[in-house]
Amino acid sequence: MEPATTRVDRALHFLRIAYEKQMEGDLQTAIQLYKASIAEHPTAEAHTFLAWTYSFLGRFAEAIEECKTAIEVDPDFGNPYNDIGSYLVHLDKPEEAIPWLEKAKTAPRYEPRHFPYLNLGRIYLKMGRVAEAAREFEQAEFFKSAVEDSEAAEGDPEATLH
């Protein structure tokens, strides 16, 4: 592999390796590499993945702060909004999670689009707000199905829009 030459290249290189280490369970190394990526060129993705790693360690307050930094870097990136909501649920603060999940639903750049709907549905169900939960679950299924249909159509030249 050719050495990374620009700060952005180095940041992406560190980000990729950090993710691999995280998936291998080497969380401390992943944290160091995410921080190295951020030091080279801060991205919302690197901050969000660092937050996710903190959450694996039960460090939810730090995870939330990293997600807030990710939002400062790129407010259009929806993943940190959803992740803050998820971390607040883990901290038994579902009411505080709702506005973050609502923001995730409207973020211009967010995949997988159905996650905040599922998370809101689960919150509303636990709160006994069944009609709201059903609405969120229906929307989650709509977005999930749309992605699956799109992926299936990519490999099928005979596919038509419905």
Structure description:
The protein is an all-alpha fold. The protein has a domain of 75 residues: Tetratricopeptide repeat domain (Serine Threonine Protein Phosphatase 5, Tetratricopeptide repeat, Alpha Horseshoe), CATH 1.25.40. 75% of the residues lie in helices and 0% in strands. It has eight helices and no strands. It is elongated and about 55 Å long.
> Main sheet?
none
Could you name the CATH homologous superfamily of the domain at 10-84?
Tetratricopeptide repeat domain
For the record, the CATH class of the domain at 10-84 is: Mainly Alpha
Q: What characteristic shape results from the CA principal axes?
A: elongated
Q: Per CATH, which architecture of the domain at 10-84?
A: Alpha Horseshoe
Mean pLDDT: 89
Oligomerization state of this entry? single chain
Strand portion: under 5%
- Residue ranges: pLDDT <50 for 5 or more in a row? 156-162
Alpha carbon gap, first and last residue: 44 Å
Number of helices: 8
CATH topology of the domain at 10-84, anyone?
Serine Threonine Protein Phosphatase 5, Tetratricopeptide repeat
Element string (H = helix, E = strand) = HHHHHHHH
Helical/strand content category? mainly alpha
Helical amount among residues, as a percent range? over 70%
Secondary structure tally: strands? 0
Report the radius of gyration as a whole number of Å: 18 Å
